[in-house]
Design goal:
Structural class of chain B: alpha/beta
Number of strands of chain B: 15
CATH superfamily of the largest domain in chain B: RecF/RecN/SMC, N-terminal domain
Oligomer: heterodimer
Mean pLDDT of chain A: 90
Strand content of chain A: 5-15%
Radius of gyration of chain A: 22 Å
Number of strands of chain A: 6
Largest sheet of chain B: 6 strands, antiparallel
Largest sheet of chain A: 4 strands, parallel
Largest interface: A-B, 21 and 29 residues
Structural class of chain A: alpha/beta
CATH class of the largest domain in chain A: Alpha Beta
CATH architecture of the largest domain in chain A: 3-Layer(aba) Sandwich
Distance between the termini of chain B: 25 Å
Order of helices and strands of chain A: HHHEEHEHEHEHEH
Number of domains of chain B: 2
CATH topology of the largest domain in chain A: Dna Topoisomerase Vi A Subunit, Chain: A, domain 2
Distance between the termini of chain A: 72 Å
């Protein structure tokens, strides 16, 4: 059988990306062909480079070009707290709040037995290695799903014998969003988790 | 709430159909296998986003076609809500006012209560039927219950998987704790519902069959702990079961094995009640469900009755129509013989034949 021509190969490659179907993949492909040659060159260089130069931070498992990553090197950050997140986008979300000045740890996943993800697949060992004298609190910022809750509990069990305080972020109605627009599930959970004023 | 318009495209055996139902009674008449139940299922799907019978969405799409869509207009307190649900490329999309909506934001505009021949066998049938009844009934009044059921199921499936894979104790333990949180919510919801509907149910049975019948409905959790439905106690119970559950390869006790108990003079109705008495109980239970929705949720559901009359004897049938006459909401009822139905006024008759529906002049 003849090998697929370059156009079909590129369409196929694009269509493997999340959120991109066959039609969009074809549009992108023909855009690249029509556009200035530099578009294709920059794209291919950037793609090659991102895989070649980005690796995991040996401390917090962030994606980084330098090891340890910039966040881990930053001396102004408070080493007494570690915020554990599922993914790098989760870390960026917390960074954007500007409220947190501690350090991070990225798990790259959640415990999900149904998808075959166990503790070995998560970057938990590097987390435990960090729990020395300096760390006082581990904040578990996983999502409030079944997998997120189970992962939070697992981390709590791991850290408890080491004498570290383990906390969990609250969940409920988003601030700034009108109560009336909150969906029923979120509201029901927020009610269940209400606190004394 | 009333369905004021219903349109189907490539749904089951319907190529295209449109109805403007009567605000009170809609009699859907046709031979078996023509598509009467499919019309009810279209409304059930529009309300709950779950097919009634199909386990896979594909089965909803008309044979040889790729997509299906059901559109509905629902009038509630003077406002018309537009709902739609479709399957395209194997994915389900729900739309409210023409805009795609997440399930949790979709529910609420249309509440239906369905009564099928399967329900008629609920007292004698498998516990699965009774669990499904209670979860559906809670969901109709409080759609967030669906998330509770789904999350519980996910946690349960995860624990079962871990047991079969001989996962280490510390990991199973974590899932037991997660499972206990979800189970506690589910059990508390079921318990509260049964406690609410129980007295009403007993009252209605007494009114139908005479006060001497002495029936009772109770919640029978498979896993009873002290304090009742306490997450820590549930967690401890599952931890204690772990060894045996590992051998079995699944979680034996828990909400997935809960049951409802129907008793007649303190004896199990399953074994001791006659078939007629059992059917009277189910009829009373459905009536109690509707009354509870009206009383507590201030919601008058749309009733979907699928060929129920043929399953009831003349006396219970008369009682059903007595209730329907007093019920103020909208009713859709399928039948192979309109002679069964004691509805003479405020009605529209729909004739269903080979996947087509036509209004029949009355």
């Amino acid at each position: 059988m003849a090998e697929a021509d370059p156009i079909r190969r590129l369409i196929h490659a694009f269509s493997r990306l999340p959120g991109i179907g066959e039609k969009t993949a074809a549009r992108l492909t023909f855009f690249v062909l029509d556009a200035d040659e530099s578009v294709a060159r920059e794209l291919s260089e950037a793609l090659g480079e991102v895989r070649r130069r980005i690796r995991l931070c040996s401390v917090c498992c962030n994606l980084t070009e330098v090891d340890p990553c910039r966040t881990c090197r930053d001396p102004r950050r408070d080493g007494a707290t570690i915020c554990v997140v599922e993914s790098v986008p989760g870390m960026h979300a917390i960074e954007r709040t500007g409220e947190y000045r501690g350090r991070y740890h990225i798990l790259h996943g959640l415990l999900a037995p149904l998808d075959g993800v166990g503790p070995e697949q998560l970057h938990l060992k590097p987390l435990l290695a960090r729990l020395g004298d300096e760390v006082e609190e581990v904040i578990v910022a996983t999502s409030p799903s079944v997998e997120g809750e189970a992962t939070a509990l697992y981390i709590q069990r791991l850290c408890r014998p080491l004498g570290v305080r383990v906390t969990r972020i609250a969940s409920g109605v988003p601030i700034g969003a009108d109560l009336e627009y909150a969906d029923q599930v979120t509201l029901a959970r927020a009610l269940a988790g209400r606190r004394e004023l | 709430m009333k369905v004021t318009r219903l349109a189907l495209r490539d749904f089951r055996n319907f190529a295209e159909a449109e109805l403007r139902p009567h605000p009170r009674f809609n009699v859907i008449w046709g031979e078996n296998g023509q598509g009467k139940t499919n019309l009810l299922e279209a409304m059930y799907w529009l309300s709950t986003l779950r097919p009634l019978r199909a386990s896979r969405l594909r089965e909803l799409v008309r044979w040889g076609h790729k997509a299906t869509r059901v559109d509905g207009e629902v009038e509630r307190e003077g406002l018309v809500h537009r709902l739609a649900v479709e399957v395209r490329d194997g994915d389900r999309r729900a739309l409210r006012e023409g805009k795609q909506a997440r399930a949790s934001q979709y529910f609420g505009a249309l509440a239906v209560v369905m009564f099928t021949p399967d329900d008629v066998g609920m007292v004698r049938g498998s516990p699965e039927l009774r669990r499904r009844f209670v979860d559906r009934a809670i969901f109709t009044g409080r759609p967030a219950h669906l998330a509770t059921v789904v999350d519980f199921r996910r946690a349960l499936d995860a624990r079962n998987r871990l047991l079969r894979e001989s996962a280490p104790d510390d990991l199973v333990d974590v899932y037991e704790a997660t499972l206990a949180q979800q189970a506690a919510r589910l059990m508390a919801a079921r318990r509260a519902y049964v406690e609410r509907i129980g007295p009403r149910f007993a009252e209605i049975v007494a009114a139908v069959a005479g006060a001497e019948l002495g029936v009772e409905l109770s919640y029978r959790p498979s896993l009873s702990v002290d304090p009742v439905d306490d997450p820590a106690a549930l967690h401890a119970a599952w931890a204690a079961d772990r060894g045996r559950d590992r051998e079995r390869g699944f979680t034996q006790r828990g909400p997935q094995a809960d049951d409802l108990g129907f008793t007649l003079l303190d004896r199990s109705a399953r074994s001791y009640a006659s078939q007629g008495q059992q059917r009277a109980m189910v009829l009373a239970l459905k009536i109690a469900e509707i009354q509870l929705l009206e009383a507590i949720r201030q919601c008058t559901p749309v009733l979907l009755l699928d060929d129920v009359s043929s399953e009831l004897d003349p006396r219970r049938n008369a009682r059903l129509f007595e209730f329907l006459g007093a019920f103020e909401g909208q009713v859709f009822i399928t039948t192979t013989d309109p002679g069964f139905l004691k509805i003479d006024a405020e009605r529209r008759i729909w004739r269903v034949e080979a996947g087509a529906v036509a209004r029949q002049e009355d």
